Description:
Helix content is about 35%, strand content about 25%. It has eight helices and seven strands; from the N terminus they run H-H-H-E-H-E-H-E-H-E-H-E-H-E-E.
Amino acid sequence: MSTIEFFREGIKNLKTVGTITRSSKFVCKEMTSFIDFSTAKVIVELGAGDGVITKHILRAMRPDAKLVAFEVNAAFCDILREIPDDRLIVAQDSAEKIGEYLRANQLGDQADFILSAIPFVTLPDDLSYRIVETSRDHLAEGGLYIQLHYSTLVKKMYKRVFGNVDVNFVPINIPPAFVLVSEKR
Ligand SMILES: C[S@@+](CC[C@H](N)C(=O)[O-])C[C@H]1O[C@@H](n2cnc3c(N)ncnc32)[C@H](O)[C@@H]1O
């Protein structure tokens, strides 16, 4: 998908997409820097868009690992399904269904890492909490939940759900970004 097409998709669906530009390579690097790729067997991505972070994850992933990428936007899902990698499972569905997709793909009940770019700032509070709580429930002990935001407005949600959150700033992105990291303890 071209930058212009992503821009159009962002404008058309501003509340759910939350931006008009895909993540910069600096954001992709920061998001994936928290993953221990030598051990991660099951990774879940929420709000994969047209796959810019997805491809970073796949490049670093073990040959025997699986990535389940959730995305609600049909146009983005069509692009994701073109990525030629059988370790990728595209879930054209809302992120609350993590458990269903893990079980349906014989991946157990818990992921080692969950990354999300879902724009919770523009989504209703109850939906946001439901997705973040479901993520915690389907994350292995010691696993990390890694969230992209463009502000720290909803930082308290992660503190409430996980009991901890670290904030990392990535200035080279439009707009400048924050990567929030919580550990399942
Ligand atoms: C900020 S964009 C991120 C796109 C891409 N990951 C990137 O970093 O450039 C957020 C994405 O979350 C998706 N999204 C919004 N609500 C969702 C939900 N409930 N479940 C899954 N994906 C969702 C949007 O359609 C959009 O593609």
